[in-house]
Amino acid sequence: MAKKEFQSESKRLLDLMINSIYTNKDIFLRELISNASDAIDKLYYRSLTDKKLKVDKDDLAINLSFDKDNRTLTIIDNGIGMTKEELEENLGTIAKSGSLSFKENMTKDEKIDIIGQFGVGFYSAFMVSDKITVLSRSIDNEDAYLWESEGADGYTIKKSKMDERGTKIILHIKENTDEFDYDKYLDEYELKQLVKKYSDYIRFPIKMECTHHELKDEKKKEYEDIKEIETLNSMVPIWKKPKNEVSNEDYENFYMDKFNDYDKPLKVIHSSVEGMTSYKSLLFIPSHAPYDYYTQEYEKGLSLYSNGVLIMEKCADLLPDYFSFVKGVVDSEDLSLNISRELLQESQSLKLIAKNIEGKIRKELESMLKDNREEYINFFKTFGVQLKYGVYNNFGQDKDKLKDLVMFYSSKHEKLITVSEYVKEMKDGQDAIYYASGASIAKINSLPQVEQVRDKEYDILYLTDYVDEFCITALQEYDGKKFVNVSDGNLDLDTEEEKEEIKKTNEDNSDLLKAMKDEISDVSDVRFSNKLKSHPVCLTTKGDVSIEMQKVFDAMPNDMGIKAETVLEINEKHPIAAKLKKLYKKDKDEFKKYTKILYSEARMIAGLPIDDPTEISKLICEVIAK
Ligand code: ADP
Fold this sequence. Notes:
With 626 residues, this protein is of the alpha+beta class. It folds into four domains: 11-214 and 223-231, Heat Shock Protein 90, CATH 3.30.565; 238-373, Ribosomal Protein S5, domain 2, CATH 3.30.230; 406-485, Rossmann fold, CATH 3.40.50.11260; 496-625, Four Helix Bundle (Hemerythrin (Met), subunit A), CATH 1.20.120.790. The protein contains 20 helices and 22 strands.
């Protein structure tokens, strides 16, 4: 019998499939099962209008079987079937629009992209088969037809027999190669796994004869193999069920099973959205961070389904980075099953879904914070860093969405509060939101700069996470109130009188201050100040980079050379100030020693290293031994 040629474009696609440009060969089964399910759907719809067509809903099914010896895998459906013409048109040509054209110099990725537009579909079966036989009988025809192809050089089609309407696809599975184990498609366990993984929620039962090893005779320890038809898929996805039909336990079991967590989720968000883009989603906020959450290995994303069929296991585009901890599934009929990753990213429907989902998660967190603060604080302790990171990531473009979800430790309340709560409690005359950063709450508490602000009974936000200060810097202000670091050299809590007074002291002692600065060249300024209560000295900063930020930069592998501009401030009311003035006049050598010791003290308090501790300890001994 004469071989018919595939349409030239189909031929090239076949070439690509046979040479497997797709790394994930497993998906062929999903494609064929999905076609089978569509064919049954079509039949069912026809039966709704065509009274002559008798369809028993309970008979509708997809059957899988395999034959190891003959290396065949067979998929049978009792759907609408195909006529001779349909077989030729559907399986002999790809892309009815005919616009699929591969250019000679296209890269592999570009080809994958184009294929994605038209769907890998039926042809994907050539990734695993060296011959495909399709026997089909349409509801519109008594005759059945047999279509057969061994790949790109064509197909044959001839009249045949088939007892019932439907389609039977026989794949002749390739021999194993060094690179790939094709035998797995002839293995009961593997096939079960594949169906569970990709086609669990197909609406019709996917049946296969399975073998159970059962004890026949207890005494003789004799076993026998019992064969039994099993339905491999669960058919109804939990996210498609109405909320009132799903118990908390159902949600929890589904979550723990699907996302391999030993713990129940903290929150479940189940929604069904109808509109421009319709979808159902089932989202979970875990109660603890996955073990790899803060590593490079962690992959964010939601499982994406198109009408019950899995398209992508982790669709990253559905979640912003700041909600990367969320797990779940999204199912939309508005997404094409065969869409490629690249095109999916461009899909307007997907963008809309992603936007809605972001909003839903945010709302859920906002109401958790409002209605169940304790729960929220637990959540925040686990994933708060991610939210703060979201505030400053992408040049702060999402900060307004997140600013009411971040919390900081309040010096006054001694617990986490939101910025909005801070602002509501601001005192008359207070025009800034004060914060201080350090390695721990205890360390910040003992910062000299904190004292003056606390004396005024202003609350201070204590920043102890490395991301905190970057987050605050990105926020810049809240409700028109600026954030001010208590260690900022420009911190301005003095009265006009006090300001005048200290200005004069600094002017009168400019020579002394210059001499100190020359002695410790890495500060940008030395000055007297009245912001310190009991401490003799402290380090403050000028400009945008604080000492704590510098520490973060210093810890990064690629040293960007970003340094804080530091100022050594000396408490004007402390006896040390008078001592310095006296030494400057009488004993320059001693004055220099004092300068170095005081500067080292200030660095120590700020948690910065001292360049030459041996020298400093020697100097201290010299001074105290006097
Ligand atoms: P797609 O499913 O994306 O249209 P395929 O290459 O998988 O692309 O299938 C091409 C067409 O062949 C389908 O649209 C359908 O009309 C027909 N077809 C495939 N499998 C079956 C089947 N089991 N029963 C009936 N028709 C089928």
